[in-house]
């Protein structure tokens, strides 16, 4: 074991798999386009299937597709023969994974797809296999050695399957113009879901907004600022459009003779604002990435304030 170099082995494996991925990318062509179109036009669901390591990859691809707006599920090829074929129906598309294409458990599922005219897309390294011959669309993996060549354990082949699944998912995302807002609806929990919530979902509105007019004496403006507890007051013209804001910093800058001024004289014009449909993550960047940083923003629609967002609201929502 003295000659064993783990780093050298790791580099060799990564280089080999990277080379295989590069080769697959270069060979990608018309069958891939056909697969994306067939999956994108499916009236039903995209059904992933496989066994063993290919089954594990199939589960991951199904989860990726479902989370990005393409209805998908995984049906284990072995269980399909014992009743789970009923989960596959008209309008569905089957995406089957098998390196050799001769996996015995796939036979009943292939026969079922052919009998009921369900499109079958195959990901395999063997075009002349049972799966390759039966497929309506064949996505052929390059016939390259596994990284663990002594044992022939699935390594490079499953990496290729996984990457091809990601390529299909991303192509479907771009084909249908899937938006971050739609993605957020499918990920309401956790950090990612929080980042994809909109400002409109988190903002305070109605009577909570600290607003005043330009002609209002500063004593009254300070009272509004204190009552609403955001450390800011918005100054709006007669039409309700936001003209500026007064913050604690503005109070300090005008401390000499402050109460002799009106809100319009003290306010800072052209404040940072956000729109209700802006993502919470974007609002956070606006608060923190641009000088000067701020902890509170007015939410404006058609120049009029419709809400207010505090950095604490982002904290409570899990954005930070």
Which SSEs are present, and which pair or pack?
Blueprint lengths: L5 H22 L2 H11 L5 E5 L1 H16 L4 E5 H4 L12 E5 L9 H9 L4 E5 L5 H5 L2 E4 L15 H21 L3 H6 L4 H6 L3 H4 L8 E2 L5 H11 L3 E5 L5 E6 H6 L9 H4 L1 E2 L3 E2 L5 H10 L6 E6 L2 E7 H7 L3
Parallel strand pairs: 1-2, 1-3, 3-4, 4-5, 6-7, 10-11
Antiparallel strand pairs: 7-8, 8-9, 11-12
Helix pairs in contact: 1-7, 2-7, 3-7
Task: Walk me through what this model shows.
- The chain has helices at 6-27, 30-40, 52-67, 77-80, 107-115, 130-134, 156-176, 180-185, 190-195, 199-202, 218-228, 248-253, 263-266, 280-289, 311-317; strands at 46-50, 72-76, 93-97, 120-124, 137-140, 211-212, 232-236, 242-247, 268-269, 273-274, 296-301, 304-310.
- It folds into two domains: 6-178, 3-Layer(aba) Sandwich (Rossmann fold), CATH 3.40.50; 199-317, CBS-domain, CATH 3.10.580.10.
- The protein has a five-stranded parallel beta sheet with strand order 2-1-3-4-5, with helices on both faces. Strands 6-7-8-9 form a four-stranded mixed beta sheet.
- The chain contains 15 helices and twelve strands.
- Helix 2 packs across helix 7 and helix 3 packs parallel to helix 7.
- Helix 14 links the parallel strand 10 (273-274) and strand 11 (296-301).
- It is elongated, with a radius of gyration of 29 Å.
- The protein is an alpha/beta fold and 320 residues long.
